[in-house]
User: Which sequence fits this backbone?
């Protein structure tokens, strides 16, 4: 019997805990604030930004919203970020990706001061993660670990297979699993014996961006499966990287798409924003 890991439920528990932390910060005169910048009119990005604003409202974080036209120049965006870097009311800065082609994403990520980089993309925060030091962990990988822990999944000593090696999910989630004492294998497009490796996995994290790529026949009986993918299948229906139907009955626990990792990403963004406010209070 496969247990469904409910990301919506777990993310609400996290946001409820954060709500109490925010109330306590406000009593000390600290009002956590998150600046969200959206450039252009990408419809998926607009949905994400709307969800982030709703989460801020729920937790009690002040949301500063900047919706800029598609033709915004790199210089204009850098100028806005510089203003926000120096604004004491703003504890976290988030620039919604992807950006229009005239703007260099790397330059934008580097321009956000590391102590306000609640997305955890700045090289200083990535380096801190690699070295096991304190810093902001990018939200989706942090959400994956939180899902496992709150579903009572033991990571220490387990064979963990991460499918995908992106800077946003694959690499950081591998480092986090290592920190939790998992034995980690990273697979990618050049991996020759994927099924063989998956068959050894106690925990599978799929983050490759290919609809229904991983089948139940490739899994070890009783594996825990975390599906980070968000794709559309041939019928245009939302689905993950894991073929949910064939994995149900093989996996012991599995996240659905939607309703699994997605809500956790936003909950961990709220967590990072509250952490930034706490860091400022203690600095």
Assistant:
């Amino acid at each position: 019997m496969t247990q469904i890991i409910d990301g919506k439920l777990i993310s609400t528990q996290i946001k409820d805990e954060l709500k109490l932390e925010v109330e306590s910060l406000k009593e000390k005169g600290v009002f956590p604030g998150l600046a969200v910048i959206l450039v252009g009119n990408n419809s998926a990005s607009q949905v994400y930004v709307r969800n982030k604003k709703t989460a801020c409202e729920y937790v009690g974080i002040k949301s500063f919203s900047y919706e800029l036209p598609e033709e915004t120049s790199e210089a204009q965006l850098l100028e806005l970020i510089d203003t926000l870097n120096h604004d004491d009311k703003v504890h976290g800065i988030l620039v919604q990706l992807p950006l229009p082609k005239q703007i260099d994403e790397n330059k934008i990520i580097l321009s956000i001061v590391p102590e306000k980089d609640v997305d955890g993309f700045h090289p200083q925060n990535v380096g801190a993660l690699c070295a096991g030091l304190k810093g902001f962990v990018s939200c989706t990988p942090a959400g994956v670990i939180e899902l496992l822990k709150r579903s009572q999944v033991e990571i220490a000593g387990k064979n963990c297979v991460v499918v995908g090696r992106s800077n946003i999910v694959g690499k950081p989630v591998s480092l986090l699993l290592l920190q939790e004492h998992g034995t980690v294998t990273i697979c990618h497009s050049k991996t020759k014996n994927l099924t063989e490796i998956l068959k050894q996995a106690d925990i599978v994290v799929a983050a490759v961006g290919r609809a229904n790529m991983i089948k139940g026949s490739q899994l070890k009986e009783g594996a825990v499966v975390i599906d980070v993918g968000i794709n559309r299948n041939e019928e245009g229906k939302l689905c993950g990287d894991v073929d949910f139907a064939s994995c149900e009955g093989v996996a012991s626990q599995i996240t659905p798409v939607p309703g699994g990792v997605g809500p956790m990403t936003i909950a961990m963004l709220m967590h990072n924003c509250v952490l930034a406010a706490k860091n400022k209070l203690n600095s």
